[in-house]
Amino acid sequence: MESQVIKILFVEDHPLISEGYVRALKLLKKQRPELDFKISEAASSDAAIHLLHQQAPPGFDLVMLDLVIPPSSCGRWLSGEDIGREVRQRHPESKLLINTSFDSVYRINSLFKTLNPEGFLIKVESNASTIMDAISSLIDGNTFYGPSVIQVLRKNLAHDFVVDQWDRQILYRLSLGASTASLSNILPMSKATIERRKRHLKEIFDVLGQDDQKLLARARELGFI
């Protein structure tokens, strides 16, 4: 039987979790000996972007993505979500499998609107068997979602908001201590636009008042920074 080479990129900054992925692939190889896995690993946004830009089309067959990874040195890619956007733009045929600790309805819905991943797992619900099933399903052209994600999808929550890359840039810069007044010198938008986006974020996150620290605390809780 001719082997099928599957190119996989792990974007994960915790070595123990990456090692768990490798063990899961070894177990999957025993179940499906026709599969040969070629593994690449990135523990930061810079490393992930380097590998994605280095990879010729059609790119990796599967990108397994954590959301919380170190931002790029240039400040363009802040999290795994930005890496996912790069995958979608540069290698649209690649499958995305998100594995994250964030399980908020806001975050899950936002990620489906921005990335529409083929696979989505919550880490506390993930084990070697689940990861094997998810990877096998995506390789075969199907989707795979964990129980919490399925519950959100079944509720069919049609939020009409998207926290886009510029919203997250505002939150990120504020979290570093930048003032609202200085953001118009950092980001390509006016002070009025920044204020409008902040008001919108406070509305969708149910944050009352003018206190930006409350907005940042809520954004951290939901996994947006």
Please provide a brief summary of the model.
The chain is α/β, with parallel strands linked by helices. The chain has helices spanning 15-31, 45-54, 80-90, 105-114, 128-139, 147-155, 165-175, 180-186, 191-204, 212-222, and strands at 4-11, 35-42, 62-65, 95-100, 119-122, 144-145. The chain has a six-stranded parallel β-sheet with strand order 2-1-3-4-5-6, sandwiched between helices.
Describe this structure in words.
The chain is α/β, with parallel strands linked by helices and 225 residues long. The chain folds into 2 domains: 4-155, Rossmann fold (3-Layer(aba) Sandwich), CATH 3.40.50; 165-222, Arc Repressor Mutant, subunit A, CATH 1.10.10. It has 10 helices and 6 strands, in the order βαβαβαβαβαβααααα. The protein has helices at residues 15-31, 45-54, 80-90, 105-114, 128-139, 147-155, 165-175, 180-186, 191-204, 212-222, and strands spanning 4-11, 35-42, 62-65, 95-100, 119-122, 144-145. The longest helix is centred in the N-terminal third of the chain and has 17 residues, at 15-31.
